[in-house]
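User: Fold this; tokens only.

Assistant: Input:
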Amino acid sequence: MPSNRISIPSVRGRPSIAVTLAVIVGLSMVAMGGMHGVSAAEPDQPEYDVDAVGDFDDAGDTLGSADELYVEDDGSGVLVYTDDGDDDIDEFQLGADVSEGLAHVLIAGENDGDEDIEGEMSASLEEDLFSADGHLTMEQPPELDELDVEISGEQTEETSEFDADIYALFSGDSDDADTQQLSTAGAQTQQQSLFESASTSGDVEVAADTFRTSGDVHVDLGTSAMGDSPDETFSFELSETADGYEIAVSERQTEFDSMFSDPVEEWETEAKAKATLEEQYAEMAEELGGEVTVEIDHHDFDEHDENTYWKELDYTVTYEGIEEGLQDALTEELVDDPQTDLSVDDAERIAAQVTELEIETVEFEMISSDEEFEATWNVQINEYAAAIEAIGELGEASMDDEDLFEDEFEEFDDMFEAQQAADLRTTFEWDATAEFTDDNQIELEAQATGDTENYDAYTDELADRGIDAADEEVVFEFTAYTEGEEVYVDGTVEIGMDDLAEEVLTSMTTVIQDESDELGSFASTLEDSELEIAKVDVDFDSETVELEAGAKFENTESLIEDGILGDNVAVTQIAGEDEDGDVVTYVYIEDLETDDELSESTLAELGLVDDDTEVYEPGEGDREFAEMDTERAADFLDVDLSGDDGIPGFGLAAALVALSALVATLLARRT
């Protein structure tokens, strides 16, 4: 992927830049994380209760000591952090507002990424919907003459389908130096000698209790300089009989005399050939306590020249009485496997399920010569449901912690049962070719489709098993094409699902908690914050790049309960901007229980001030404090402002939780 980035000022242990990075990472993660949800319970609605709890011994672990502190006589104050700016940044805005529940960041500057490339991307996550779209334009590479790609898909309550259509034309032409042209041409000549064309087509169909696939592969190797050799063929057909299995084999191939084999001794006569085949196939029958017979229908063996022979064989191999031995062998293997730790009874039951699988037919044929290669197959397997269930049980038994993926295994079982009950049929078809043209170009064409039958009945069966897929919808489209010496790429995706935002926050909570035990409180608060919308936009070209991200939260009562900084001191707003080449971040704080002046000693204990912090008492200092541009943030997110002042009992901005948790994560990683 092309590199498109702007330089961020060095962190140097300073919190303002860490906050900036946290907002970018956090808000982008929320918006882009819409596809990664896991089940979540309804968040509790706690009553307002100030309780200074915290997972950090002091708030300095989160924000660090300020360069300046301005205190007021009403219990509020402003912490000021100043860091060196970056000449590559033209615009910088950072904000999080408590009363509005808003977080927002905007960074624009110079781009040191690839030349001749520009694009834009937007993604948003709302309560029940994730959507993203993007556009990319780049200069057409000299090796690419033409490109036309269309991929689309849809999954709703009633259907699940996709289509892909791809065309590409490549050449070795280049505008670089003559030496590179010669090198490219030489590589192309070598590549062309490998094949002139190749193609494959086929299909796969999975039904309630039937698996079927058929297809072919063909490679045209072109005219060979090796002479006229006969075509070599190999084919077999495996089928199940009442007493065992039957394999019909046909071979037409060249045999060579070597230190490892003597073709004359093994294949010269039909009797020798039968003895050789019986020896090859008898070992498995003996191990499984069954019998094997070999019948030869056609035999021919000729010497072409010294040490080279031509062999033709058509024969049938029949296995009888191996089912019980096969089941016993599988049982023994499972019992002896220390990873599964199965009892004999469980192993016998699983082995019986696996051997219930019924082979309708397995056919394969391969033809090869000096000028082409071709292979075809046709497979149908019935009664595979019990075998799939057994494989799932084996997977669960193989886990070190059986409870680790317990829910996932149970859901897999429910989904598989639903497929059986609904007679869900899923098909996949493909057709692809690659060939060298007369102009020494490589032309690629490929089509693929996927479709389902009885999908609506399948979602009904899922609902009966407690899996609600009725409101889940996925729609995506991707196109790429060449036009006027440019390559254009466009893509869109929409995912609709009940409580999607809640599930994404739950997933993020799990990730944060896994990162650090110290972030458990912040992570839980984030999960309870009732995200209204998160959004990220990126716009870039060869010279500039702009990133804007934001989020709006509905409920952050738990943040008040946990006390973001400890000792009843909470953040009411964060605002950051570029001031005369420096990045300055203003953190507005307030004592939640008193209107008296903030205690400098309390803030020192929290790590917010130290001996290097310049403290200004009420009325001192003439600095103007930047405030968050809440209107711009609201316009970007397309939400309304509440207009509330101060810290209400309901509606404290959970945006601060995301900021703090991610700041702490970054600081912990840096440490």
